[in-house]
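Before drawing any conclusions, I needed to go through one protein's amino acid sequence and its backbone structure tokens, quoted below without any editing.
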Amino acid sequence: MRSDNLYELPKDLPVPQDDGACDHLTRMKLPAITLRSTRGGTVDLAGLGGTTVIYIYPRTGRPDQESPPGWNEIPGARGCTPQSCAFRDHHEALKRAGAAQVYGLSTQDTTYQREAAERLHLPFELLSDQKLEFARALKLPTFEISGMTLIKRLTLIARAGVIEKVFYPVFPPDRNAGDVLAWLKQNRKA
């Protein structure tokens, strides 16, 4: 079992700073890359119509495993489970505000993600960018820890495959879904 509670954010987490690593993303087209889904199929985000919310996170933890050493000291790393739970809790409101679909995305494999999706009762799919193809195509910011290359936390809102809004850095992660909901309400398209 873990020595901490992965469902709660520690109070002393370092705050990530905006390093400009996502400044290029607004108005970019999503790459036509097929990603494996926790529902057993694949998704090509570039081919989706309507408004798509994609929250991208480093990695979800598991109740039976400790975080990598130094995880809490990396600005913006901790909080994937609280962020996913917030998107779960706001899912219906996000849809009412115009999100045709919501996805979570990380570099973890689909089997690992499926455990999290089931345990957290997520009503949306998690997508695996295990080979970092999506991340590289968009030049997303990454970091290394314990032999893993992970994507820094950010959220994209795309309309008809074009990125319209980028949330980066995202902190605290458990408020991201509420921030996305507020943005969708203010920028609703007819």
User: Anything to note?
Assistant: The first strand starts at residue 34 and ends at 37. The chain has a mean pLDDT of 96.
